[in-house]
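ok posting inputs for the zinc ion job
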Amino acid sequence: MSDVLLTGVVLYGMNNIYTVESGGREFRCRIKGKVLRTERIEYNPIAVGDRVDVRPDEYTPEAGWITGRQPRSSVLSRWNKKRQAVQVIAANTDTLVGVSSLRSPPFRPRFLDRLTVSAEAAALQTLIVVNKCDLPREQDTEKRLADYRRIGYEVLLCSAKTGEGVPALVEALQGRTAVFFGQSGVGKSSLLNRIEPGLALTVGEVSQKHNRGSHTTSYARMLRLAGGLSIIDTPGVRELEIADVEPEQLAFRFREFEELAPQCAYSACRHLDEPECAVRAAVESGGVHPDRYESYLRIYSDLKSFHEEHHGSPYG
Ligand code: GDP
Ligand code: ZN
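and the output
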């Protein structure tokens, strides 16, 4: 190792090799030693967006060693079922962009509700992007989108196909570090290609893409785009398994419950079957969308069984 110590940003990592950008150069780095021990079970000590210390390798150009990780301003995590560990998806971002589509695949607010919970847990802003607005929409979808806006989330409709709404999206991303999340097929790659035509991300039918095992869809990576945009693209997922939320804390991750919870008869009300629950009353009177409440119940039940199975240990 040389004596030179640089700092850089992790653009992506694959097979324990991390590509770190420092001073306009990209270094392929391995982790040096045990400096990166974490307090909990995280299988990846370094995530995309991490700011790290790098010692360039003396003998190999553009190679180096990660010797330390700087404190993170934010951590977005998920529970990785396959690895049975918390996986940090992105570090140091400020906005979670939930990409969905109006149709094909159908609009899935259930998925977006899980995203908003993860975003709230990581203290990130949420931007809901609804792609394929060139396709006809259902009235139910309109109502759901209006409700997301009502409770304070930013919602943008756009079409990667026609370009409609894309300038507004670029505008909204200005000055932010955003992580893009979406179920496969919603058009996330098409949208990123629209934002930056030179990207040439693979677009295709979902099944074909997975069979091909294309690079662009198998790991998260930070894209540096024109106009100073920084976007972390993640592989298309079926679900974002929530980590870092205790079942009893879940209600605090539903922002429209916040004002209501103090009005519940029980101070430790879980808003399930307790009498005189202000949240349930609001579901009846229109203050809480019934679908959001249903998401709350489902996520609560998932977290509860998870918690019992793992004795709470993976929570941060
Ligand atoms: P990803 O899996 O989210 O990255 O989705 P892709 O970008 O690969 O797109 C999946 C499919 O949706 C492709 O067939 C695209 O041509 C199509 N698609 C993407 N954006 C739009 C859009 O705005 N409108 C319509 N009608 N189709 C789109
Ligand atoms: Zn309650």
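notes: DSSP finds eight helices and 13 strands in the chain. The first helix runs from residue 109 to 121.
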